[in-house]
Amino acid sequence: MTLVGKKFPDLSVDAMNEMGETFKVNVLDEAVNNKKKVVLFWYPKDFTFVCPTELHAFQEAMGEFEKRNTIVIGASCDTPEVHFAWLSTSKDNGGIEGVTYPILADSNRNLSSILGILDITNETYDEATGTVQVEGDNVTYRATYVIDEEGVVQHESINNMPIGRNVNEYLRIIDALTHVQEKGEVCPANWEEGKDAMQANAKGTAEYLASH
């Protein structure tokens, strides 16, 4: 079920930073209390393959996100201790040393369960043991959320495990959202900062199509 147009869940989750500090992060509060946009991106596992390329790509774009009044938060279901071990591992050894944004440690899977982004293909109840048997890795897909200053989800997307994200697309989405907020115009297909937008009415559509 999509969260677009709805408030992000009001839930605090353990997080880790590059200093080895564990603290609570409430994504909704980060947006609303700081009056900033938030990009929250989930990845499957620490110490894996595509994942470190994405974390480094978001880090390399931090200056661009900051220019856009946007907070970046990473997230997976690993524990804070595993996050710190990965943060302490050099890039040459497959680590994410140098990443400065916080990384959620949703090890109890409370938030990822609410979001519905876990790799669970089937659940069955074992009457003999009284336990739930889960099929799938029970880790998150590559889900991404763009949340505005009011805590409302403006974009969500989910990639399967092997497909890495294009960080520039989230910068483009933030630019489009900011343009809508500030100019009251809507952004057509393939819009980028500096290109023509349009009025959200029939005349605006006709004028845009006629000139493009």
From TrEMBL:
Keyword S-adenosyl-L-methionine: no
Active-site residues annotated for this sequence: C51
Gene3D superfamilies to which the protein is assigned, alphabetical: Glutaredoxin
Thioredoxin domain boundaries: 2-179
Nucleotide-binding as UniProt keyword: no
GO biological process terms on file: cell redox homeostasis; cellular response to stress; hydrogen peroxide catabolic process; response to oxidative stress
Listed name of the protein: Thioredoxin peroxidase
The species this protein was found in: Aureibaculum marinum
